[in-house]
Amino acid sequence: MSEAAEKKIDIVNIEDTGLDQGIARLTPERIEKVINQIIDTETGVRLKLYVDTCVHCGLCSDACHWYLSYDRNPRFSPVGKVRQTIWKILERKGRLSPAEVRELAVVAYTECNLCRRCQQFCPFGIEIAYMIALVRRICHKLGVTPLYMQDTCHSHSAALNQMWVKEDEWTDSLQWQEDEARDEFPHLRIPLAKEGAEIMYSVIGPEPKFRTQLIYQAASILHESGVDWTMPATPGWDNSNMCMFSGDAEMAGRIVKEHFEAALRLKVKRIVMGECGHAYRAVYDVGNRWNAWKMFPLPVIHSVQFFHELLTSGRIKVREKMPGKVSFNDPCNISRGMGLHDMGRHVTRAFCEELVEMTPNREHNLCCCAGGGVINCGPPWKKKRVLGNSAKAEQLRRVADQGVSIIVAPCHNCHGGLDDIIHHYNLPLKLKFLGDIIYEYMEKTRAE
Amino acid sequence: MHGFYALVSGPLVWVAFAVFLGGGAWKLWRLLSTARRKDVFIHEYWSWSHAVQSYLHWLTPFGSENSRRQPVMTVVTFLFHLGVVVVPLFTLGHLVLLEEGALGLSWPALPDAVVDAFAFVVLGGCAYFGWRRLALPQVRSVTSAADWGILALVAAPFATGILAYHGIGDALLMTSLHMLAGEVMLAAIPFTRLSHMFTFWVTRGYTASEFGSVRHVRDW
Predict the structure, then answer these.
(1) CA-CA distance, B197 to B218, in Å (whole number)?
(2) CA distances in angstroms from A342 to A35, A88, A346, listed in the order given
(3) What's the DSSP call for residue A192?
(4) Which of A4, A24, A323, A336 would bridge A9 by S-S if both were Cys, CB 3.0 to 4.6 A apart?
């Protein structure tokens, strides 16, 4: 029995000011108009194909960590979520009450991580994440979005980064980290707005805000490997994209465009992104399409690809291997979303004494339950999210029982989600980014 | 009764085939042409090599991760779908009618005992799917009357075919009902969930293309 059922924890009636105030402003007429407008103008064949082709076999259910974690409750099965949202919208032709819109929002924002595992389990390959994202689009247009997520979206709109970081705070943070790092690497620079550099390195908003040591580490790795790099001084440095998750497609597209334009202004050859999964999805898979680019105007790679490249080309070398057993957590957006699981393992094996596989893994891995914007719905939804991923906790416990003490997860959302699970379920595990390990265990020829 | 037989073995056959083929073609054409306007990614990212690999993996029993997790469903659904295709196409009686009718051509039939067994497999499959709809909560919660309807649509021609072949009930009546049931099923395919017979190739192929050529990962 799930912990929620055992302890009678209410996971249904959760207050969220954003949702509650949002529905207070709605009328049935407006709901009907907005829903039909979106269905008529923004959807086409895919929605129709998916809805008409689904034979209601339920074979997607076992793919979902929510379903597995909450006692196989059909409410949480992927097709169950479509039944509560898209089917209802289409059957009723958009005639929903405000309270029913709130239900749509709860399912779409807080009970689905858009991880696409169910798409791999569906015999027809139906993309349920697409339909759930469409529901979020409707909720966004109706002004019914979770408060915490919407705050990050407002920040994107006002400051073009997720964390209300002002322009001078951004450059200050970089200079601060450069200053810190020069104690270790006397000649280290964080080249700001260097035109014509080979690489633009971009990060997510939370890095300058409260994980600045990651910028220090990245700068150290880039410095040690001797690549020609820069970071932008203007907006566009933040590659994260909460608007993609809230359903604000216009802003999501603008964020991705700004990111590329920062790189184009600097005339760099390519962009390297930090260890974040959702940002990579936004840039590689979603934002480019919104901007009508089949692929993007200049190459963009994830840190895992970059580290793999640095390692195989000999630009960074392993000083010593990290002792102990580690396991590799495949982030959905770069594994199922880009097939980087082999490169990630290659780098992990090079720097770690022993890699123990967790199961399921690679492109079939279970989601961390934080991605897809679910963790960004904030504190009101945390308990439901953590209890909604006991499946992942069991998976982690199995590797912990095999003596693993460290989980390597090259994704910020995975860190957030796994960190919560590790604490809640008392797992004897620590989390690391690949950058953490590389920084600590690489040869530092340019350090003092 | 002879009038009924004449109707179901004559004009209705043509109507059923016309609706099935015409409706199917119309459905696919409409989907793909609308996709050009409104879901341009389907055409832009389409990759035949990935689509074909995916078809093979998903049509081969235990060729996909999920099918290995669901061994009973995998075996049942494979045999069921094989039966649905094999029985109508390789029953001697059907082929004789085809050759003697306007088509004027035929192909080798399977022995009666084999198609008879397959017909029972199809009915067994229907029973299994019905059982899943009742017994498994994750399936029951998404089951509607229409789902029972298509099960009945598929079961009817096979059940009546078995009765006619084994001489149970009035022969002429059973044969006529069998023909009618087959025609109804055929004509219903483009307009019900049975249209997955056509759309499977599109949804599977598109997902394979996105997974394979954009995300560089397998989709099975």
Answers:
(1) 23
(2) 42, 41, 6
(3) B
(4) A4
Q: What are A21-38's pLDDT values in tens digits?
A: 999 999 999 999 999 999
Number of Cβ within 10 Å of residue B13's Cβ equals 19
The answer to which of A54-58, A108-112, A309-313, B12-16 has the lowest mean pLDDT is: B12-16
| Contact of A326 with A430, CB cutoff 8 Å | no
Residue B211 DSSP one-character state: I
Spatial separation of the C-alpha atoms in residues B63 and B51, rounded to whole Å? 14
Residue A198: both structure tokens together? 């080979």
Question: For residue A273, what is the enclosing H or E element?
Answer: strand A270-273
d(CA A13, CA A439) in angstroms, rounded, equals 45
CA–CA gap between residue B102 and residue A220 (Å, rounded):
79
Tell me the pTM. 0.96
As a whole number, mean pLDDT of residues A70-92 equals 97
State the DSSP string of A291-331: TT-SS-SS-EEEHHHHHHHHHHTTSS-BSSPEEEEEEE---
Residue A242 confidence class, pLDDT cut points 50, 70, 90: very high
ipTM confidence score: 0.95
Rounded distance, CA B177 to CA A141, Å? 53
pLDDT higher than threshold 70 for residue B102: no
DSSP B31: H
pLDDT in tens, A111-121: 999 999 999 99
Tokens encoding A94: 């958009």
**What does DSSP assign to residue B195?**
G
Q: Which residues of A touch B (CB under 8 A)?
A: 43-46, 48-50, 52-59, 61-63, 67, 72, 74-75, 77, 79-80, 83, 119-127, 285, 289, 294, 335-339, 363-364
Per-residue confidence band for A289, with pLDDT thresholds at 50, 70 and 90: confident
Closest residue, chain B, to A62 (C-alpha): B66
Return phi, psi of residue A206, to 5°. Answer: -60, -20
Given an 8 Å threshold on Cβ–Cβ distance, is B203 in contact with A125? Answer: yes
> Is the peptide bond preceding residue A360 cis, with omega within 30 degrees of 0?
yes
